[in-house]
């Protein structure tokens, strides 16, 4: 059975359909941004890196993801965010500060270790990483994941439990004693956290949607739908006005060139 996500990805990979891109961004932008924000601790930088993630997705001329685009995008968001921290030396300073303030055996503050949690998730093998990302980052039920992966519900549950245990072991090696129960509870909060996309990021991704179409009218329709889905009605009105202006400029440019 082919699921909607499969059809959308096929539309994108085969035809570079801007409507497919719009649907992909609408589905995953919140999760990507939330991942970047947790690791970087800076909303403006998180927007920049989230944009980079979708630019990487656009430039990929062959599918780099396997069974789950969401899990792949989470990995890209994690790696790009960590690289930015490393390039500025902030990751080591954060680790040194955390090591100096933590007492062995203490349950750490979640704000201090979210970057390590995302990294531990990204390090999991695909058979464990995909169901965990689908459940905790995309809010899918065990039943839905089982149907998409073609395995039983109990197998999904077992893989998620194994993944949490493995993530806990990875974090423990870093000096972060987090139980699998606490880890699962903390990850569950990501579903709500991933529901918000800043208006400025929505505008930028709307422009990316526009850039994927040779026909301005088609792209404008995709961008309008995209903006309305991501933002509140009040913000969407302002955004749609900006996109209409952008569309007119694009049309005017094409007319002049003709």
What does this structure look like?
The chain has 258 residues and is mainly alpha-helical. It is built from 13 helices and no strands. The chain has helices at residues 4-15, 18-40, 43-59, 69-87, 90-101, 110-122, 126-137, 142-149, 153-173, 180-193, 199-211, 216-230, 233-257. α1 crosses α2 (18-40), α3 packs parallel to α11 (199-211) and α6 packs across α9 (153-173). The termini are far apart.
What is the overall pLDDT average?
76
Tally of DSSP helical segments: 13
Q: Kindly state the number of beta strands.
A: 0
Please state roughly what percent of the residues sit in beta strands, choosing from under 5%, 5-15%, 15-25%, 25-35%, 35-45% or over 45%: under 5%
Largest sheet: none
Order of helices and strands: HHHHHHHHHHHHH
* Terminus-to-terminus distance: 46 Å
Low-confidence stretches: 214-220, 232-258
Overall structural class, as computed from helix and strand content, comes to mainly alpha
Helix amount: over 70%
Envelope shape: globular
Radius of gyration: 20 Å
């Amino acid at each position: 059975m082919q699921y909607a996500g499969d059809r959308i990805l096929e539309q994108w990979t085969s035809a570079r359909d801007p409507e497919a891109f719009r649907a992909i961004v609408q589905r995953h932008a919140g999760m990507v941004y939330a991942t970047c924000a947790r690791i970087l601790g800076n909303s403006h930088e998180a927007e920049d890196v989230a944009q980079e993630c979708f630019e990487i997705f656009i430039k990929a001329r062959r599918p780099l993801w396997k069974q789950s685009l969401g899990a792949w995008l989470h990995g890209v968001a994690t790696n790009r965010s960590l690289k930015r921290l490393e390039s500025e030396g902030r990751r080591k300073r954060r680790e040194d500060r955390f090591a100096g303030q933590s007492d062995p055996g203490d349950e750490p503050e979640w704000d201090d270790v979210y970057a390590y949690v995302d990294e531990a998730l990204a390090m999991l093998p695909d058979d464990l990483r995909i169901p965990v990302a689908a459940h905790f980052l995309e809010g899918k039920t065990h039943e839905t994941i089982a149907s998409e992966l073609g395995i039983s519900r109990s197998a999904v549950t077992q893989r998620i439990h194994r993944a949490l245990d493995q993530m806990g072991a990875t974090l423990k090696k870093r000096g972060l004693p987090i139980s699998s129960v606490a880890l699962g509870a903390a990850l569950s909060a990501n579903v709500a956290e991933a529901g918000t996309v800043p208006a400025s990021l929505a505008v930028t991704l709307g422009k990316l949607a526009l850039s994927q179409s040779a026909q301005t009218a088609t792209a404008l329709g995709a961008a309008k739908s995209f903006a309305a889905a991501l933002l509140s009605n009040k913000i969407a009105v302002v955004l749609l006005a900006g996109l209409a202006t952008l569309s007119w400029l694009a049309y005017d440019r094409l007319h002049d060139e003709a």
